[in-house]
Amino acid sequence: MGSYGTISFNGVGIYGAKNAINFHMLSLFSPSDYIMETKLYDDDYTLVEKKFITSCDIAKKRLDIIGYTVDMVEKEFYENMDILKNSDDDYPPELYEILSRFYDFTEDCPNYKLIEEMNLENFKQSIKSFFQMPIAKIPTDSILLDYIIDHRKMYYGVGLPVLDPLSEVRIILETLGENDSVEYEISEIIDNGYVEIEGVFAYWKDGPFNLISNETVILAEGTTDIFVLKKSLNLLFPQFSHLYKFFDFDNLKSPGSTSNLVNLIKGFVNSGIKSRIIALFDNDTAAFEALSTIELDKLTPNIKIVHLPHLDWATVYPTLGPTGESNTDINKLACSMELFMGKNLLKKDGKFIPIQWTGYNPKLNRYQGEILYKKEINENFRSIIKKAEEDGLENVSHDWDDLKYLWQTIFTAYNF
Q1: Residue 380 has pLDDT above 50, yes or no
Q2: What is the pLDDT of residue 112?
Q3: Most Cβ neighbours (<10 Å): which of 221, 367, 371, 407?
Q4: pTM: predicted TM-score of the whole model, two decimal places
């Protein structure tokens, strides 16, 4: 009969895989989500359940990070529905299996009544109704709900007309509560020797998990930026840390700078690389000048240019120039990674450390600035990171708000 693994949402099994792991679905989880739980069924019978478990909220955010946004799925859904309605059976081969689900073979024509009900909002409402049913039986008073129930019987999902099951999962997650569970139960597959758990973990590092591009590579202007990003991600958002890799300037003997970051981007574009790449630039004059040498509208969709985000509190910030000190909006002029390390590190004697204007850029008609005591700020930040790693984040008094804000910008880089 074989052994099965089941992917369930709020306790309802939706997907199954026989004698193997569905590695594509591991995108919903991280290695730290794996648990072994002993269940007592009778006085003399216990079973150690082996499974991955996370919340719907975290699973949604993981899918958003790797590009499975609701907007993306909605676009694919309606494109496929247009094909179904207008192609007169001349479907592209990759869509034939999906679209044939809506075909009434007894009448030898599309099931027009089902198609009429088929919009994304109706589909989401029907999925929600399915999860609320004590026992899912057909017929119901909805042909679409009947279709979902019938499709789910085979553990192939709920029948959304999309090519990638993760797109369907993204819509399923929209119908559930943030704290509802997502589980992948793999006890039988592990216990019967079809897969070893070490092999499952290896796929996050070495195997097809990487081949299906579920990691995003982050480039930044230098080693300090990469240090800040890597350490803050592990501390603040460990549930997403497995989804990113960082370009290592030191190990690759590559100098870090704004111009070299631009050259790296040009090299990746010319090489035709398909991996997701986020290039993070400072929000300053030097970054905007360097990027002016790139035709941004010709970048491939997998490469995203992201600036350090706008800081509201930096719109009136002390600066030093030839005419003395003045308060200025330093966004787009002098916002480097140091501005995100914590406002408590940016003050001396209760006042913000000023920005020193370092030069005028005639091309952009604006000044470039740099925060004073940069080395000291970086050293203090490294001390904070070391303490947080040793004592725990909750035991360190520090302002993490701007780094959290920065990461939200990075997390949503593929949402538009």
Answers
A1: yes
A2: 65
A3: 221
A4: 0.85
Query: What average pLDDT does the segment 332-344 reach?
Result: 97
Q: Which residue has the higher pLDDT, 232 or 24?
A: 232
Q: What is the pLDDT of residues 201-224, one digit of tens each?
A: 887 765 444 434 567 999 999 999
**Is the per-residue pLDDT at 281 higher than 90?**
yes
